[in-house]
Amino acid sequence: MSSQFRVPHTLVLMFGMMVVALVLTWILPAGEFETELNEAGREVVVAGTYATLEEAPRLPVWSLLTVVPRALADAQGIIFFVLIIGGALAVIRRTGAIDALLGKVIERFAHAPALLIFVGMAAFGVASATLGMAEEYIPFAAILIALCVAMRMDTVTAIGIMVVGYGIGFGVAVINPFTLLVAQEVAELQPGSGMGYRLLLWVPFFAVGFHHVWAYSRRVQKDPSASLVADVPAAQPPQAATPPPLDLRRSLVLLATLLALVLLVVGIARYGWYLVELGAVFLGLAIVAGLLGGLRLDAIAETFSKGAAELAATAILIGFARSIALLLEDGLVLHTIVNAMATPLALVPAWVSAVGMLLIQSVLNLFIPSGSGQAFATMPLMAPIGDLVGVSRQVAVLAFQFGDGFMNMIVPTNPVLMGIIGLAGIPYDRWFRFIFPLILKLMAVGALALMVAVWTGYS
After folding, report:
1. Parts of the chain with a pLDDT under 70
2. Could you read off the pLDDT of 16-39 as tens digits, one per residue?
């Protein structure tokens, strides 16, 4: 009897990459580039200065254990920021404000299929692009499915509204604290910088995603047998839970959240706020939202603690991801790998190199579906590669965003995706048939967007 293949836990995959990194320090030649400070005061590698080193430390096996506490300490700024974000979002969720808002949106456009798809995708996308929400959407699956089926659409359409919406939100994030801000921190960029171009990109990417979901829904409405799950009993609509009402208290919580996001944007753009100030805003938001939502101080504290605890695994993943780069740095082979990857990319135009970065990030997403973890694992390589091949670090971050956001709509190692389609009863092979053509479209538009970014000097 053959056993079914099971994807290992992300932490297992990450530790496996640490083992590979340690082995690489034993077999690759040590080497380094000369570095210099650029106009922005950022240390960058100097092209053409790579040289091998005669003597290099040989890391012991137990470095796999000692490097993790060091990596956690090294990434403490991001880790504590992520924990504060988790606590703040938990408080906002407990007030019911987010559930009430999304429920209201879905109910309002229940009798206009195209508008339901458009507004639903926009709501999920905006929440992901700003607050980094994803798994919080799972409770809305049943409501969406019930509405879509009532309008002669199917379960795949409903989940498409949700997953494509949040996938594009992550891919073209504006101030997502879990992916964009982490990647910019690692790449030594101002948090939230480059926002204007990303806002412009929302139009083409959202248009492509909306058309894909809408065109599929139209086919199902005209011919129900065209549904990818017409013969799957488990994919038929479950009983939907009723969302809470959007009363005055919840409306005030949403207003406070909106004002906090505006404050973040202004603080980043005008005053150069960084992780400390951004974390303070979210901490203040947690207190204000909790009080406006009618929660007692003890309830706010308890909910905040639980929310932070829910992201403890993400914090650990960040530490393990940082461990990979630390091992390569300790063994003096990080620049050796950068040189090996940059050499072929340097032989082609910078815009081709940018597309190559997108392909690399997309492949790596299969092994590191965590956006924060992937940022810490890959940006230490991609940032200096960009320095060498003429691709700005802002473009390198954009390539990371595309690879992370878009591929998380299809990779089976993404637990949020598998949880959503699992609850909806959609077999993965049917979901793959629905989403794969869209991934190809988004990757093509993403490649074009990266080319334009290089040509226009996006930085």
Report:
1. 1-10, 38-45, 47, 110, 135-136, 138-139, 237-241, 269, 366-369, 373, 377, 413, 415
2. 888 988 999 999 998 887 777 766
Six-digit token pair at 172? 């073209």
What is the domain extent for residue 436? 10-74+97-243+311-455
| Assigned domain for 278 exists | no
Spatial distance between the Cα atoms of 316 and 406, rounded to a whole number of angstroms: 24
Alpha-carbon distances, residue 336 vs 21, 27, 54, 290, 381 (angstroms): 12, 11, 13, 50, 10
Q: Which burial class, exposed, middle or buried, applies to 88 when counting CB atoms under 10 A from its CB (0-12, 13-18, 19+)?
A: buried
pTM confidence score: 0.70
Round to whole Å and give the CA distance between 378 and 396.
Answer: 10
Give the amino acid at 103: G
For residue 293, is it within any domain?
no
Sequence-distant (6+) residues with CB within 8 A of 404 are 170, 171, 179, 361, 365, 371, 374, 375
Condensed to tens digits (0 to 9), the pLDDT of residues 321-350 reads 778 878 888 888 877 877 777 778 778 888
